[in-house]
Specification:
The complex is a heterodimer of chains A (about 425) and B (about 110). Chain A is mainly alpha-helical and about 425 residues long. Chain A has helices at about 5-15, 20-45, 50-60, 65-75, 75-105, 110-115, 120-130, 145-150, 160-170, 175-185, 190-210, 215-225, 255-270, 280-290, 295-305, 315-335, 335-355, 360-385, 390-420, and strands at about 230-235, 245-255. The chains are: A mainly alpha (about 425), B alpha+beta (about 110).
Chain lengths: ~425, ~110
């Protein structure tokens, strides 16, 4: 018997079932048993094995048409299997993981389900602390003081108030103060009530932590936001490379008086000893309390706490850089050289302050972005003011920062090109 | 005289249901019985039978099971389901009306 020929025919007849090997194998076995029976009967009726085989194979007729018809007839069964596979992959496997978690810690599901905010890393964090009765034994090991530092006072209504409670308990701590102010900033609302409260709290924070530029810069950022609008348009300057483009910025002044107030606030920040957002210190405080995770939930909690560290001030720091510099250009056009130079000269300190407070990758990237923004503008303003030496120094110093990004980008581009070849 | 395959298409399913109404059968056996009983007027081929069997199974009118036959070889046997039995009754009635109507028309002298 020419088994290879038979297998080839069976392969062709079941070609339409190739996406489902299990059904294909079943149909193949059925057709093979049919062929075997037919060949055997042919032999019994006096045909040679070869002839019987030839006739049996021939009896199937047009294999392409039959293959299509067999595939059509089995579509429903195949779809069911496909659905089952999806179900198994997307529901059963996570279900098994959830079961594992439940068996490990029975209260987790209740904690998760009772959360109002199931989206985002804070969900677990929120649920955990809001449902004190459901909080598992593993979290009971924290003292009330530690729980306060970890989650804030969850009896308070708003997130900012919850975090404020930590600072109220330890009013001398500049770390908890910054944590409260930044939480308030995260929960920014576009209404006068929020702005009034924010400015009042910033005033208070400036008095408590007089050496810190953070509160001046947040104040300045909020004022710039109201006083002017910076918009940008990107234009490709290389038709072959979509990554090479030029961005043109423009400033639209909405309230000049407010803009000047914002500049003064920014320059007040420049006079300060340092810029400290304390975000990394706050995170370390919390991670110290958790210590070495004792189970998977403490591990998750550690991740949730790290992931819920927000840096809302970074956006304002970048906007201050853009707004102040573009306003300096406006002042120069108005022949107010002295005022323009006062802003431009502050840049070096500003960038230094930001870099020193950059404990996160985000901070470093924002610092780089600011340097990029000033790279051409600052020397240009100096040159227009006749300060050629200062222009050269600024070019050199800003280049030192931006070169890192340019080199990385260029080398990255080279790598992607070689890979595509 | 062999029956045209277009005519065969409409009757294959009720014929299979009726055969399985009497006993469980495997594919090759069905072809043999059909061809014998019709004196080869119905020359069923594998390409006619198997897609038809799989369609009926997908519609849950028949069900299949692998069994070891007397010659110790595995065969896939088909049996009629309850749903299949109900459909068979309908199909028989339908066919009776159809055949009667076709006969009337074919024997009519305008």
């Amino acid at each position: 018997m020419d088994k290879a020929k038979i297998e080839k025919l069976l392969d062709n007849l079941t070609l339409g079932l190739k996406t489902d090997p299990e059904i294909r194998l079943d149909v193949k076995s059925e057709l093979r048993s049919h062929l075997d029976a037919k060949i055997e009967e042919g032999i019994q009726s006096g045909l040679s094995e070869k002839e019987s085989e030839k006739q049996a194979l021939k009896s199937f007729g047009d294999t392409i048409q039959i293959s299509d018809e067999i595939a059509d007839a089995n579509t429903a069964k195949m779809s069911f299997k496909a659905r089952f596979k999806v179900f198994a992959g997307f529901l059963l496997i996570p279900a098994v993981i959830i079961c594992e978690l439940i068996s490990f810690e029975h209260s987790i599901l209740g904690v998760m389900l009772s959360s109002n905010t199931l989206i985002g890393p804070n969900a677990y964090f929120d649920a955990l602390s809001r449902n004190k009765k459901k909080v598992s034994w593993s979290f009971q090991r924290y003292t009330p003081k530690e729980r306060l530092i970890l989650y804030g006072d969850k009896s308070k209504k708003s997130k900012a108030e919850q975090q404020k409670a930590i600072w109220e308990r330890f009013p001398k701590s500049k770390v908890y103060l910054a944590n409260y102010i930044l939480t308030l900033l995260v929960k920014k609302k576009d209404n006068s009530g929020w702005h009034k409260k924010m400015f009042a709290e910033l005033q208070m924070a400036k008095k408590i932590d007089p050496d810190n530029a953070l509160y001046n810069y947040i104040t300045a950022g909020l004022l710039f936001e109201k006083a002017c609008k910076i918009s940008s348009k990107s234009k490709r300057i290389n038709e072959f490379d979509r990554n090479i483009y030029e961005r043109k910025y423009s400033i639209k002044i909405k309230d000049r008086k407010l803009l000047e107030q914002a500049i003064e606030e920014y320059l007040n920040g420049i006079q300060k000893k340092h810029l400290k957002s304390y975000t990394i210190v706050m995170l370390c405080c919390r991670l110290d309390i958790i210590g070495k995770p004792q189970n998977i939930f403490e591990n998750l909690n550690q991740i949730a706490i790290a992931a819920s560290t927000f840096l809302p001030h970074m956006n304002y720091l970048r906007n201050i850089a853009q707004s102040s510099l573009m306003y300096a250009e406006v002042l120069q056009k108005e022949a107010k050289q002295k005022e323009a130079l006062r802003i431009v000269k502050s840049w070096k300190i500003y960038l230094k302050q930001i870099t020193e407070d950059s404990n996160y990758l985000m901070g470093i990237l924002v610092g780089m972005r600011i340097a990029e923004f000033g790279e051409k503008r600052i020397p240009a303003i100096y040159r227009k003011a006749g300060k050629i030496k200062l222009a050269e120094v600024a070019t050199h110093e800003l280049n030192k920062i931006t070169t890192v990004k340019k080199q990385w980008k260029n080398e990255g581009g080279g790598l992607s090109q070689s890979q595509s070849i | 005289m062999a029956v045209n395959s277009d005519l065969m298409r409409g009757v294959a399913e009720p014929v299979i249901l009726n055969l399985l109404n009497n006993k469980k059968m495997y594919g090759y056996e069905i072809i043999k019985v059909v061809n014998e009983k019709t004196n080869n007027a119905f020359q069923w081929k594998e390409g006619t039978l198997y897609p038809c069997l799989h369609r009926l199974e997908a519609a849950k009118l028949i069900e299949s099971e692998w069994q070891i036959a007397e010659n110790n070889k595995a065969r896939k046997y088909y049996t009629l389901t309850r749903k299949g039995a109900a459909v068979l009754v309908e199909k028989k009635e339908e066919w009776a009306v159809f055949a009667k109507s076709v006969n009337v028309l074919l024997n009519a002298t305008a």
